[in-house]
Design brief:
single chain, alpha/beta, D-Amino Acid Oxidase, Chain A, domain 2, Helicase, Ruva Protein, domain 3, ten-stranded mixed sheet, 20 strands, 35% helix, 22% strand
């Protein structure tokens, strides 16, 4: 077993959005930080969201005003930190005769929502009265019983890339961040954390890493992780719920904006989302007590989402056979008694053990930066109390994550969608590529898009599209391998260039070419190449389990 010479102040377990945010916050304060993730960064819940940064309009109904205020405030912060990844989008909430909340009450609710945002939403909401005006905006909507609608504004995001840019920033500032590395055990001396034992999931090699504290940011895996590594906490802490999304061809429902709708099946909030040239219907919210590593859309999930959507968009005629792809993840909700999964609070809690193990549980994507800040501050307080003069020779700094842009957000004169478009125009002009491609790169990579333009200048063949109906190019495949910490083919095609979610054949038509490209760059032998191909094909098969309940697991 190898032993690390560095003694870290903190080891973070978990490389989802919370762990990534913690690593970035901690290293910016001057802490010595290592982060270990047993899969790819963001491969769990953090890449399985509805791809939205929002205040949580439905939390108003539950009177969680503090959570809404925190969320809309963070929405504004994230728009400045990463204008390429977090950008405004219009939402439409149709109101019918039998809607639980009427049009006028909904209007009052949106005034509260705008007020909590201090009237700094991308745009203030508007009320549309009468079915005709609503149908002009979204013709596919059900006309029967339609009274009007509310239009308001929240934000889209690329959840996988939000995680990745936090990791890249942490590494840039000195953190050690390793994917496919599992923490097998926590070691203690005199009752306090002294080290962790980690194992590389690909090579099997084990290492001994010295640390003064451990932060568990393991999301839905928290209860299992606590029991496995003897973290000294009682379980269960969580009541995870499963959220499923279905991806359809855009022609099934060509929306112009995000639709926030109420399922006629069970009355819960769901979305219909125009996304990457496709239409996404989601999400479910059902309690889940199985293996967090085996979360997939099943036939019941698909039937529920199709039935709900068909009631609201009757001409779409959604059927499970129309689905291009699915994704499913678990929300790490705090364990509490509630009538339904949707009633459980999305707020976070931090637990600090006497031995130096800190755990963050609950929360939501939009508020990850605050969760990270609170967790790091709690850890620093413990370190100062338990280790006395640990920071005597290196006073800590302010992280300033509220004003520090993420890597792709650095260098914008105008940190807004307008600034991103200006960057795209500059790249298109200087690199002689299409405006469409330049905008795709700018909104995906931010100012890092210039690195792709430089790659294409050296090898013009890289500008070729990976698939004809999608904007992604071979430059992006190479960039993922060379600059974005991708370790496996699945990392590339599931999260960096997500053909798994948007490709009509989910990337199976190009996986061999991508794998051969990666094998050449990484020096893989045939055995490793075959494993990579098999692993990705299994990922695709698991995303299609809703079609065959007896399929592979």
């Amino acid at each position: 077993m190898e032993a690390s010479e560095t003694r870290y102040d903190v080891v973070v377990i978990g490389g989802g959005i919370t762990g990534a945010g913690i690593a970035r916050d901690a290293v910016l304060r001057g802490l010595r930080v290592a982060l270990f993730e047993k899969d790819d960064f963001g491969s769990g819940t953090s890449s399985k969201s509805s791809k939205l940064v929002h205040g949580g309009l439905r939390y108003l109904e539950q009177a969680e005003l503090g959570l809404v205020f925190e969320s809309v405030s963070e929405r504004r912060v994230l728009m400045k930190m990463a204008p390429h990844l977090v950008r405004p989008v219009s939402f439409l909430v149709p109101v019918f005769n039998d809607s639980r909340v009427g049009l006028e009450l909904m209007n009052i609710g949106l005034w509260i929502y705008d007020t909590l945002a201090l009237f700094r939403s991308p745009k203030l909401h508007t009320t549309i009265r009468g079915a005709d005006k609503v149908l002009e905006m979204e013709p596919a909507l059900r006309e029967d019983g339609l009274k009007g609608a509310i239009e308001y504004h929240d934000c889209f995001t690329d959840d996988s890339r939000l995680v990745l840019e936090n990791i890249l920033s942490a590494v840039q500032h000195g953190a050690r961040c390793e994917s496919y590395t599992e923490v097998m055990d926590i070691e203690r001396e005199r009752g306090q954390v002294s080290a962790v034992r980690v194992r590389n999931m690909i090579t099997g090699q084990e290492s001994h890493v010295k640390t003064a504290s451990v932060i568990m940011a393991t999301g839905p895996w928290s209860d299992r992780a606590i029991n496995k590594i003897d973290a000294g906490m009682k379980t269960p802490l969580l009541s995870p719920t499963k959220g499923v999304h279905l991806v359809f061809p855009r022609e099934k429902l060509p929306l112009k904006r995000v639709m926030t709708v109420i399922s006629p099946v069970d009355g819960r909030v769901m979305f219909a989302i125009p996304w990457r040239g496709r239409t996404v219907i989601g999400t479910t919210d059902t309690y889940f007590d199985g293996d967090p590593d085996q979360v997939h859309a099943d036939a019941a999930d698909a039937a529920y989402l199709c039935k709900s959507a068909n009631n609201l968009f009757p001409e779409a005629n959604f059927e499970p056979e129309d689905v291009i792809a699915t994704w499913a993840g678990l929300r790490p909700l705090i364990h509490e008694e509630a009538d339904s999964a949707s009633d459980v609070s999305r707020e976070h809690q931090i637990y600090v053990n006497d031995d130096g193990v800190v755990l963050i549980a609950g929360g939501k994507l939009t508020t990850y930066r605050i969760m990270a800040r609170d967790t790091v501050k709690a850890t620093i307080r413990w370190l100062r109390d338990a280790k006395n003069d640990i920071f005597a020779d290196r006073p800590l700094k302010h992280a300033r994550t509220k004003s520090r842009p993420l890597p792709g957000g650095e260098g914008f004169a105008d940190a807004s969608a307008t600034g991103v478009l200006a960057l795209a125009a500059s790249i298109a002009r200087e690199s002689h590529i299409s405006t469409e491609l330049a905008e795709h790169w700018a909104f995906t990579y931010g100012t890092r898009a210039r690195m792709l333009a430089a790659m294409v200048a050296e090898d013009p063949t890289l500008v070729e599209r990976v698939q004809p109906d999608l904007p992604h190019t071979w430059a992006e495949i190479d960039f993922a391998i060379q600059h974005e910490l991708a370790v496996t083919v699945d990392d590339v095609l599931s999260r960096r260039v997500p053909l798994l979610l948007i490709g009509r054949d989910q990337g199976l038509d190009v996986v061999e070419k991508v794998a051969l490209r990666m094998a050449k760059m990484r020096g893989w032998d045939q055995q490793r190449l075959d494993r990579e191909l098999s692993a990705y094909r299994l990922t695709v098969a698991n995303s299609r389990l809703f079609r065959d309940a007896a399929g592979p697991h």
